[in-house]
Structure formats: C-alpha cells, structure tokens
Amino acid sequence: MRSAAVCLFAAFAVVALSSAGCSRRSKKHKKEPLQITTTSLPVGYEGQTGYSTTLTATGGTGTYTWSMTSGTLPANLSWDATSATISGDIATGTAGDYPLQFEVTDGIQTVTADLTLTVHTQLRITTTSLPDATEQSAYSCTIQATGGNSGNYTWSISGQPSWLSIDAATGEFSGTPPAGSAGTFTFTVEVTDGLQTVSKQFVLVVNTPAPPEADFEANSTYGTAPLTVNFTDKSTGTITQWQWDFDNNGTVDSSDQNPTYTYNSPGWHTVKLTVSDGTNSDTCVKEMFILVANNIWYVNGNGGDDANGGTGWSDAWKTIGKALSQAGDYDLVLVADATYNETDLKFNGRKIYLRGVAHNTSGAQPVIDCQRGGRAFYFGSGETKDSVIDNFTIKNGSTDRGCAIFCDSSSPTVVNCTFGSNRAGYYGGAIYCSSSNPTITHCTFGDNCANCDGGAVCCYSSSPTLTNCTFIRNGAKGSGGALYCTDSSPRVVNCIFNLNSATDDGGVICCYNSNSADITNCTFSDNSAGDYGGAIYCNQSTPTLNNCILWNNSAISGGDEIYISDSGSSCTLSYCCADNTGYGGQTGNITEKNCIHQDPQFVDAANGDYHLKGTSPCVDAGDNSFVPSRGSEDLDGKQRIVDGDNDGTATVDIGAYEYQMQITTTTLPDAVEGVAYSYTVQATGGNSANYTWSIS
Fold it and tell me: What are phi and psi of 17, to 5 degrees?
C-alpha cells in the first residue's frame, strides 16, 4: 500500500510540471497585431517622372497580401499589389487630392489605411519682366510663382548687382542702386518648394535719375493780411535743394522743402520755386498765385440783400453790381452759386478779384444769365491783369459785339469760365477785344455765334492769350467760326477746337491783315468752312503752329486744313500732325518742319474724345522747346511733358492732350488664407522713375 501511494504522487507532479512548461511556451510565440505603418504618401507634381512609393506593414504572420480597395490614382500612375508600390510618370492636368484606401491581410488579420496622394501643379515663375530701377532711389519688386507647394517657397538669386538682394521667404527684391550704376544687368532667380526647383533669367535696367521738375501747391491762395500760407513741395526727381521766392523779387525767402510764409502786403503775389538735385535744377513760377486782399466782400443771389453790408455770408449783398460798386483795389468779391440776371457790369479800372464759389450747392458755379438783354461785363477803363473774373458761367448775352465780355483798351484776366449761347449781331459772340490783351485761361466756349465774324472771340489790334480752353460748336455767319483776328497777335496754347463752323472762311480761325498768331499744342478736328480754310484761313497774315494736330476738317471751296489766300501770307508748321492734302491756295507759302501726315489716332473722335491712343504717332513726337515752361499742364491739367512711349526720354506730345501713363495689370493672382501675399502692379507711359502708387 505504501509503495502505490508514492507512485501516484510522482505522476501527479510530472503532469503539473509539464502543464506549467506548456504555458510558458504559448506566451513566448504570441503574434503581434497586423498594422500598416505607412502614414502618408509623398506629394507629386504634374509632369513628374519616376514617381514611386511603397507601402509597408508590420505584425501578423509576416506574409502579406495587399489591395487598393477604393479611390483612383492620377493618370499614368499604377498600383502593384505584389510589391505594394505606386509608381509611374504623373500626367499633366492631374493636380489635386486623391483619397485612397489600402488593405493588407496575412490570412488571419486584415487592416486598412486611408491615405491621400496630393499632386501639385508644376512650379513655375510667372513674372515676365522687371520694372526699371533708378540710381539713388529705393527699388522694390516681388517675383511671383505658381504651382508646387506655395507654403514652402524658398527664393534665391545669383549673378545680380551687389546692391540687390532677395527675401528668401517672399521673393521680394530690394536695394538702392548707387550713383553711377546705370546700366543693364542680367541675373538668375531660383525658387524651390522642397520638391521642385525652377529658375528664370531676368534683365534689370537701371536708369539715371530723371532731372528735377519743380512744382508746388498751397493750402490757401487768398485772404486778408496777415495771410499765413503753408506751401507743399510737389516736385519730382531726386531733390536735394529747395529755393523759395514768395514774392518773385529775386530774393530766396526759404530753403525748406515745405515752408510757411506770412504775407502782409495787399496785392497779387507771384511765387517761384527752384529745385536742384545737385547737378540739374528746375524752376516753377506761378503768377498771381496768392492774393492778399484789402477787404473780402460777399454776394449771394439766394438770400442776399443789397441793403446788407456785404461783410459775410449772413450779411451778403444780392447782386454783383452792388459789390463792384463798393469794392476797391485788391478787394476780393466772393459770389455764391446762384443765377444773376445782370448786364453791363464794370470794374471801372479797379483791381478787383471777382471769384465764383460753391456756397449754396457743392460743386456748383454762379451763372450770369443776360437773358438776351445785353452783355455781362464791359472793361473800358484800362483794366490790367489784376482785374480778374474767375469761375462763372456767362450765357444768353446779346448785343452787337462781345456779348459776354467787351474789352476796350483793357487787359483783364478771365479764368475758369464757361461761355454759352451768346449771340452777337456783328462780332465776337462771347468776347470782343479792341486794342486789348486779355489773359483767358481754362475756359470753355460752346454754342456761341456771331452774325459776322468771330463766333466765340473777335480781336482787333489785340494780342489776347488763350490757354487751356475748349471751343466747341461755335459759329460765324461770316469768318472765323471760333476766333477772328485782324491786326492782332493772339497766343493760343493747349486749346481744342472741334465742330466749329464759318459760313465763309476759317472754320476755326480767320487771320486777316498783318496777323501773326502763335498757336502751340492745339487740336483742330471736325471743323468746317463754307468757303476756304476748314481750320485756318490766312489773308495778309503769318501764323505759326507748333506741336499741333489738324485733322478731318473740311472746306467746301478749298483748303480743308489751311488756306493761304495771297502771296503776302505764309504759315509755318513745326512738329505738327496735319493732313497735308488739305492745304489750299498759295501752298508754296506753307512751310513744314518735322511734321507727320498720319492719322493721329484719337481715342473716340466720333464721340468727342480727342485724347491720343497709346499707338498714336503723335505720342512723344513734339518739340519740348515750344512748351511755355517747366511744370506746364495739358488741357486736362495733367503733366505736359512725359515719356509717353517709355523710351527713357520725356518728349512732349503733339496736340492738346498729353498721353498719360496707364496701369497695364488687369488681374491679380489669388491669395490664400494664412499665406503671405505679394504682387507688383505694372504701368507704362509717363516717367517711370517718378511713379508714386496709392491704393484705396
């Protein structure tokens, strides 16, 4: 019995030990979970060759079977399930995100992974050219690129001039060309997004600085003494020195760029500014720019009363005549916008500044309506340029001559006025001048007529100056649809004449008997004469035309553009654009100097737009020596001499309008949230060295 018990115990122990050993072996060989270890797919790009990526997995039995269970690969890429590889050459036009699902199994476990294959467009530099730089002026320009991963762009530059650098993050050039560095530079710009790298060669032109051009403005141009005026320099170029002469007496009063000056002496003051860049200088003179008035009087046709004192708007007189009867030398009369039915207004020789202002309605102009009862103004007491009419509409005048203004041995200043529907029984529908030299600036003459000569203006033994004026649809039943001159020497600058007509001669201008008109930068188009000279008729006269356009005028009997009636007359055209088939009469007495005979290419002549197209042969085709002075303006009030054809030299255009620069950029590239945005807008024309940009 004892022996049997021992044997049983031993057997039990062996079994227990054996069981424990089996348990330890089971834990040692337990398989790891199957999982796909690829967490993302490499980014590709259109046109990429040799794209390849292999998916990987771990765990399980180690023997895997792969499949792509959903999604579509970009064109030209393929999936190899045996090697779990995506490969191929990515086709163009495939940019985008491709959601894909992959599955792997080892026969026991199965797992999936959702991955996205992103294809970018090809990286390329889109900037095609660089704006010019100028010596000693800060230069900045941002190079643009598209495609690839824009968030990873890194820029670099090689072969550039030493002063130029590039921002690696934004692609912005910066630097200042030193003096003497003018020239043409070629260099290479490179951009990479970490996957693609592209480069492009650029040419940068560095110009010498444009010569200085003086200009200025003031915060106030009239008032009583003491009158403190703040002047603001508006000059262009690299200016290093300013010399101000506030009363044009030849003494420099200030060398500040933006000075302040106090006037104490009543009268008109001419201001002169001379600027210099250290090598070149320029001077701008603005005549009668500041008026220091002895007194300021007020007129308001809406609510005024001639029984008032005229010392303020609440105390304003009702009529202009009342104000003129009270005002003295260097008094300022402010006339509110209203309609004034007054005639035969007189300055009586006094130096009065009569100025229309928009007091009742913003932007409005006072109107003197003569109601066919006479003329508006008579100057017959030796008035000088210090007698001024500014900013009025004068209409419906009716008398034998000069239905708006009659100047008899007087030379007033008329500026910013509109003359319309004035009818003369004989001469000068709007203005008649006898032995007078008025200055007429920034005025418009429309629909005025004369039963004899000078539909708008008639001059006898006078030398008026007409600058920046428009003459449209004026007519004479005799000669000179717009202007008739005899024994006179008018000076006409920056004026446009269209749709004027004369029943007899000179659809625009009739020059008669020792007339020596000087005409510069004017445009004559679509005017007509019933007899001779669709634009200009000459009899015993010698007019000169400089930088002018004469085109599409007509005359029934001859000389669509110019007619020379006698051997004692002549006409000289310098740097003009004229249809020379329209010369008539004594054509041998017409002298041309550097003229062109091509279509001037107006923007829209049929609808009255006589500005020049950028392709006009008149752009930069004039002669600067005929321009009155630096700082001159064209008929629009814009800079007169600009580099319209962008050849690096600023030359005046032919005609009344200067072709101005224009912005050539038409669209902007898209921006992306959170990504730095930069783009350079381009322009052509004008003086590129002096471009100043703004945004609103």
Answer: -65, -40
